[in-house]
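Here is one chain, start to finish.
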Amino acid sequence: MVTVTVSNTLGAITMVLPRAFTRPKFQKNCLFSIFNYQFFHHLPSSFQGNNYGKNPTRVRNFTGISNFEVGENSGINLIRSPNLVALEYADLNLPHLCEEVGHVRIRQHVNPLTSAYSVPAEPPDWNAVYKDSSLPLMVDVGCGSGRFLLWLAKKNMDSRNYLGLEIREKLVKRANFWVKELGISNAHFIFANATVSFQQLVSSYPGPLVFVSVLCPDPHFKKKHHKRRVLQKPLVDSIVNNLSSSGQVFMQSDVLEVAVDMRNQFDSVSNMLHIDAINPNTICDHDGWIVSNPMGIRTEREIHAEIEGAKIYRRMYQKTE
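Its structure:
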């Protein structure tokens, strides 16, 4: 799949299309199929007239487009997901280079059961890493690059602290470099295996734990590798035990099997209720998944998954006591 932006005299639209639609034989007549309703829903009104029919899955004969070529001067720009990530987080204006780390090549899969990740991370001096260590804390388990957490931290500088736990050390070094460069005093990242480190780290924090997120964790698809998944019962117990009353847990995945597994873990906890049981205004689909992201910004994996046409499965729980 590729994201295609088409411009003409009426304006511009962006669509997610199969790669085949960029080939010459599909360019001649400018016929497009859009397989995800949400993209049609967000088209400019000028593209939604009777000229394009009432079927939201097909748009045809865009006015003013006689032909196009894939190139610098064409009316089409192929937007890769990294570019969309950059656009989503443009407000951060992140430095591109961390001299200590250099270019970061991300290893997608890490085995958390190896001995290298079996030792719990030591808690930092919380007063040294946060301007006010008494503020309520949000922990993002498996924070990846840290952009998501940095965006939230910048938005809530005086009301909440943010802690990212990540098992890939280079990402942690770069994220803390960004914290320093941006002058953010309420965000910190720790190289840690959350499964073995969460309890020791969070229990030492002076303020209350009010929010935990587990967003698109490594699915470890093979059955024999399911034990590597981050959200196992010991971590669930640690999260619930440290979470303050009315504290929340938000989780999501683009892999249904993983989402169901995480859902089952928290559905079995008696004092954790899904948010729609507490707030009836929460919009869920018929299977109980939250329809839209409640965080105000998408994670990088979420952007990549949606570009590929994947559904995001979301749940949020709140502690009742």
